[in-house]
Every structure is written in C-alpha cells, then in structure tokens.
Amino acid sequence: MADDRLQALAAQRDRFLSFLLGRVREPALAEDLLQEAFARAVLHLHEVRAETSAEAWFFRLLRNTIIDHWRRTQAHARLAEELAREAETTADTSMPSVERVCQCAHRLLGELKPEYSEVLEQVELGGVPVKEFASAVGISASNAGVRVHRAREALRRRVEVACGDCSDDGCRDCTCGA
Questions:
Q1: Which residue, 72, 122, 155, 169, could crosslink 126 as a Cys pair with Cβ 3.0–4.6 Å?
Q2: By C-alpha distance, which of 110, 112, 115 is closest to 136?
C-alpha cells in the first residue's frame, strides 16, 4: 500500500518540482529539495492514513522542507557574518600576536592548505582587513571570516601536534625546538 502511494507521488514529480520552483526560483535547489522531500516521504509515508491524503501530506512535507532549508541557510549566514565581524573587530587571543608566535607556527603555516596559509599570512600576520582580503581573492566577507576561523583552528591543531605540551600556553615561551 505504501508502495502504491509512493508511486502515485512519484508520478506527480513535475507538479511538485513546479511547486518548489515557484518558491525557490533556482532549478538545482528545487531539485535538491524535492529529493530531500522524497527521502523523507519514504521514511514517513506510513504515517499517512488514507490514500487520498497522500498528496496533501506531501505538499505539507514540501513546505516544511522549504522552511527547513531557509532556516539552515539563515543560520549559516548568521554564523558566517558573526565570524566575519569577530575577525574584523576583535583580536583573537587564541592566536598569539606576531611578536609572540613561535617559529614552529611559522613553519607549520606552510603545511596548511594554501587558502588557509594565505588568509593567515595576509589577515593575521600582514594586518590586512578581512573585507579587503575577501575583495582581493573574490569571496564574500563572511566567507573570508569563516576561512580565517577555520585556518586558525587548523594551525592550532598542527601546533598542538608538533609542539605538544609547549603549545598549552600558545607557544608563548616555546621550548620544543621543533
């Protein structure tokens, strides 16, 4: 019975896709959301009691899928903006200032992904504002803020592995000799 309802829903794929396109205006996104909704339908179709309500139930599912997508998108955008503002306006105490960075960190910087070493060299060591860096490399300021954050974390993890106990205080008094 559930298979019949699933086939009936699949037969209306174009109608559902049109419904989504009217709301998100991006064909690839509409397709992704439709696939997400079909995946949910497979898991929850048993909740539908009567065959006649499967279509209405699926339209509700599509609406909820759209709402979930926008919530996720807005949450990611807020996080990216927050990270960009943080990188722009505050000095991060987890990343020691240039004068205090041990030579291990300078050496390990070259072992990071190129986009991470580039952003740390320019923003952290070179003092280039995040917005200016973002414009120069052709990305949004919020994307650049996220990149700064991820690069800091990647470098911190590398320093912890390379320097061990010395890294506990941020390598301010480096004795590891690595």
A1: 122
A2: 115
Selected residue with higher pLDDT from 13 and 73: 13
Query: Within 10 Å of residue 151's Cβ, how many Cβ atoms?
Result: 23
CB 162 within 8 A of CB 105: no
What's the pLDDT band for 46 if we cut at 50, 70, 90? Answer: confident
Task: Report the sign of the C-alpha dihedral through residues 84, 70, 35, 44, in that order.
Answer: positive
Neighbours of 65 (CB within 10 A): 21
Q: Does residue 61 contact residue 41 with C-beta atoms inside 8 Å?
A: yes
Nearest to 162 by CA among 171, 153, 149, 172: 171
Nearest to 142 by CA among 62, 89, 63, 87: 87
Single pTM value for the model: 0.45
**For residue 149, what are its two tokens?**
């954050």
